[in-house]
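Annotators were shown the component list below and the corresponding predicted structure, then asked to write short factual statements about the assembly.
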Amino acid sequence: MTVDLYSLPVTKVSGVKGKKPEELLALGISSVGELLDYYPFRYEDYTLRDLTQVKDGDKITVQGTIAGLPQVQMYGRTKSRMLCKIVVDNLFISAVWFNRHFLKEKLTAGADIVLTGKWDLKRLQLTVSEVEFPGKGASQIGTLQPVYSITGSITQKWIRQTMQQALLQFTELIPEVLPPELLRKYDLLPRKHAVTLLHMPGSMEQGQRARRRMVYEELFLFQLKMQAYRALNHSRADGVAHPVDLPGVRAFVRALPFTLTESQKNVLAEILQDLQRPHCMNRLLQGDVGAGKTVVAAAALFAVVKAGYQGALMVPTEILAEQHKRSLDRLFEPYGIQTALLTGSLTDRQRRDVLASLQMGMVDVVIGTHALIQEDVFFRKLGLVVTDEQHRFGVQQRSVLRQKGMNPDILTMTATPIPRTLAITAFGDMDVSTLRELPKGRKPIKTYSVTPNMLERVMGFIGREVAAGRQAYVICPLIEESEKLDVQNAIDVHAQLQFEFPQYRVGLLHGRMTPGEKDEVMREFSAGRVHVLVSTTVIEVGVDVPNSTLMIVYDADRFGLSQLHQLRGRVGRGEHQSYCVLIADPKNEVGKERMKAMTDTNDGFEIARRDLELRGPGDFFGTKQSGAPEFRIADMVTDFEVMEQARDDAAALVGRSDFWTEAVFMPLKQYLQREHIFNSELLD
Ligand code: ADP
Ligand code: MG
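Structure shown to annotators:
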C-alpha cells in the first residue's frame, strides 16, 4: 500500500506548526507532495572558488586565514567601514564590511575564515555579505543553497530546513510517474533523486540534471493530458455528423465577389471535413490580420445551416458584432438565411424576440458578444459556434452547452499570430489551421516611424489621402486629458483635426460612448461619410473598412508590438496603397525596438516572434484568458525543444493499445484521472 503524498497534510513534516501551515497555504502548499514540488527558482553558490579563476564583480565564496587586525572607521553612530587582511591561497586580499563593526571581536589573527561576497579584481578586495568560521555550527560552505519564493514569516532558512526535513521523512515515498522506457530514452533521473537534488544539489551539474528530468516530466504530463483529450474526443461520436451539401457550398463560394486564396480553400476543406465527422470539431483557425478569416467562417456557417442546423458567431465587441452582421447579411441574403444580433444594447423586448426566434429555429445564425451562448439562451438545433478574435472557447463554455443537450462543433479564429509550433503546444487539445497568405493584389502597407515634431507633415498626409477619396484612422492612447501622463488624448486630437480639416467630417470613437453611439460612428465611417476617425484602441480588433488607407498612431511607443500590428491591420484591406505612421518618442528605448520591428516587417508571424523575444512568453500570452498554460519549472520558450519531444512521445503513447492496459502506465492513467480527462471536462 503506497501513501499518496498529495493527500498527506503538510503538518506531517516535523516543524510545520503554528502559523506556518497557513502561510504555506498562501504559497499553494497544503500537502507534503505539494511542499516537495515547491522548487527553488535559483541557487546561492557557496562552493569554494579559486581566486585566479574569478571574474571582476562575481559573487564568490573563499576560504582563508585572518592575517592582521581589523581596522574600523566609524561614520556617525551606526555607519562604519571595517577592513581586514586575509590570506587566500598565498594571496593577500582585503575584506571589507559595511556597518558590521560588531564582528570585530570575532576576527582574531591566525583564525580560519570563510567569506562570501562580491569580488573587486582591481583592488583584490572582497565586499563581504556573509561570514562563517569553519568548524563552528551548521555550515553552508561548499554547498549550493536553494532560494525559494517566500512570503510572511517564512524565511529562506526555515523553508530550507523544512524541505530537508520533508526529504528525510518522505523521499522513499516519492513515486515514479514516468515509464521506464522514457527514463531510458532520455537518460532521466528517477523522480525521487531528481526532487532531492533540486532542493539540495551537490553541484550545478547535478542541479541541472535534476531540472532536466523535472522539465521533461512537466511538459510530458501536460502534453499527455492534451493528447489524451484529443484522442478521446476524436474517438467519441457524440457530435453532429453534418450532412454537408458540398455542391451547395461550392456554389456559395463561387458567388463571392472574389476568388478564395489557396489557403482559404485548404482551410475551408479541413473545416468541412470536420463538420461531416461524428466527433466534435475543436479547431483553431489562425491567420494574419486581413487574411480573410471571416469569409471562411461564413462558408462554414452556410454549410451548417444548409445541413439543417443553427450557427452562432461570438465576438469580443459590439462594433465587431454589428460589422459581422452586415457582412453576413450581404452574403446570406440570396439564400434566405436569417440572421439576428444579440448584444447588450437590445431592448428587453427585442431581446425576448430574438431568444424566442432562436428557440423556435426561426433564426439560422446569431451574432453577438459573449453572453450569446450562456444563461437564458436556447437554440433549437445548434450545430456550430464560431468565436472571432481572442476568444478562446474554454471547457467551461463547452460544458454549459452540453448541459443544455447541445454539443456543437467549435471554430476559434485568432489573428494574434502565435507561431504555429507554439500554438500546437499551447493549445494542444485543438486542431490548428493556418491561413498563410493574404488575398492577391494587396499592396504591402508602408510603415513609417516619425517623431512628434513632424506632426505638420502628418497632417498634410491625412489631407492628401482624404482628398484622394480615402479614409484615415487616428489612434490615441487615452480618451481624456490626464494630469499624470503627457500623452495624446482622443478628445483633444479630435478637436484639433476638426479645426485643421473643416471641409471633412472627423468622427470620434472611444470606450465611454454608448454602444448606440459607437455603432452610429462606425456605420458612418464604413459608409465613407466620415473621413477621419479618431479613436482609442476600441478599434483594435477585427474592424474592416477597405477604403481606409492611412493609420496614424499617436504615442506609438506606448503600445505593445502585437497591438501595433493589429492596429496596422485595419488598413491595407483594399486595392489602394496603404500607410501606417507611428508617432513615437525617440527617447523611449524599448519603444524604438518596437518601431524598428514594425518598419522592418509586415509579417504577423515575424512580429510575434520579435514580440516573444522582447516580452517573454508569460507576457505574450497575456492573461489566463488566452488559455496558455503556466508551468512550474519549464519555460515555454527556452524549453521548447523538450516540449516538442514531449508532445511526440505523448501522442505516440496515447495511440498505443498497451498504454491503456499495461501496469507500468498506471501512474500516468491515474494522473489523467485526477485531471478529469475521462469525464471529458478538461482543462483551463
Ligand atoms: P481577418 O482575417 O483579419 O478577419 P477579414 O475576414 O476581415 O480579415 O478580411 C479582410 C478583407 O479581405 C475583407 O474586406 C474581405 O472581404 C477581403 N477578402 C477576404 N478574402 C478575400 C479574397 N480571397 N480575395 C480578396 N479579398 C478578400
Ligand atoms: Mg477578423
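Statements collected:
1. The radius of gyration is 32 Å.
2. Residues 446-601 form a domain with the Rossmann fold fold (CATH 3.40.50.300).
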